Amino acid sequence: MNDVGESDPKLNDLPDRESEMVQGAADLRALCRQLSGVRAEEELHKTQAELAHVTRVTTVGELTASIAHELNQPLGAIVTNGYACLRLLSRENPDIEEARQAVECMIADSLRASEVIKRIRRLLKKSTAGKSSHNINNIVHEVLGLTAGELRRNGINVSTRLSNSLPYVLVDRVQIQQVVLNLILNSKEAMTGARWQPRELTIETGRTETDITVRITDTGVGISPEDRERVFEPFFTSKEGGLGLGLSISRTIINAHGGKLWIEPGPDERGTIAQFTLPVSESRNERRNRSSDRHRS
Amino acid sequence: MNAETGVQIVIVVDDDVSMRNAISRLLNAVGLNVRTFASASEFLQSKLPEVPGCVVLDVKLPDLSGIELQREMVERGIHIPIVFITGHGDIPTSVQAMKAGAVEFLTKPFREEDLLDAVRSGIERDRHGRKERAELAELRRGLSQLTQREREVMSLVVAGLLNKQIALRLGASEKTIKIHRSHVMQKMGASSLAELVRMSQKLGIDRQS
Asked: Are A287 and A167 contacting, i.e. CB atoms less than 8 angstroms apart?
């Protein structure tokens, strides 16, 4: 940069050099700020991801009883069919046909059990793979598969109205699943008070010009107007033993995807509608994928 | 191979179709008759044959829970013993079920012998219960045929009083009491005093002394 301790003739330039130095220092400070800003953002992102994982584990933890049931059901059937099969084969006149059917049932139930495990593993994966293109309906289906048993056992009727011509969204699949899971479980919670009726859960997907929309409507106890924003504050909870992070994490996730998450009262001021948007991001390539997807289904 | 004797029925109520069919297949394989239902209401609406039986009941059903169904059955006077099965056993539920008279509480997946033992003892319990109830109904029918006077004589007889004492107490002749007494024995179908005493105990008749 500038030479220091020059001879007199150049002393005239001193004020200029000084201003250059001041400018340089300012640039340096700005750079430092920027660098630490980037680092802070990275840190923040990491912390958010970890927090999201923790709440995901907690949420799945709430489903433990249901998951155990979901697994013990096929396991019970497999074992029982196994016993039946042995008996059928060790008869004096073995009933081969019935035994064959028993074995076929055993295979089907084993596959069913492994599907449950796969779903949980996918949801509990720690490092989220980052964003990629997904059809929101598949994400919704996956979560419904995981919660169907829990909902059914709580006497909740589920109806879905999923628009089948939706563009892809660029999302972190696991995180969006977490949001959908949170919203479904909140709705379940709102409808399982003693003798509460009706118990209807509706999941809709649709689109506006710029966004994909997901609406989850329940006929539960609803949320009072003053709590409608407070529910998004961290550690706000109405559940016993709840962490109170579900909705705040969900909103953070949706915001990080450039979308919005909010809550409205249901039709006739009964129940709750939770709704979120995700911006559409569709390349030509993805459109092609989507149309081939449609062919397949 | 067919170890099961006599006609009986096992009713399987489970909303999970694989589990329902597997249990049904196993019970069929040991020679038991099986009827299956997917829900509590399906089961409650059905007409069941009047033979000794046992219900294999999943704790968690979509309409009524197994425990609620157990209560409902008691209220409707359905006495078939229950073997509970559950995908996820919790202690309070099993305690409640057993207190309310369940035969057994099994957690899926269960061992074959545990299920078969429970089912067989349930059927046995029902066979016994049916016999008891039939006997009691017969006794009640006999009792309803007695006149007021004969009832009085019966309660004094089973209290251990002699004809003479009864005659004195009721202000009748010993001969009349003798006639009443033989009518009682005849209508109740008792062949001895000891049997009449046993019958009156079953009927819960207070001894009047």
From this structure: yes
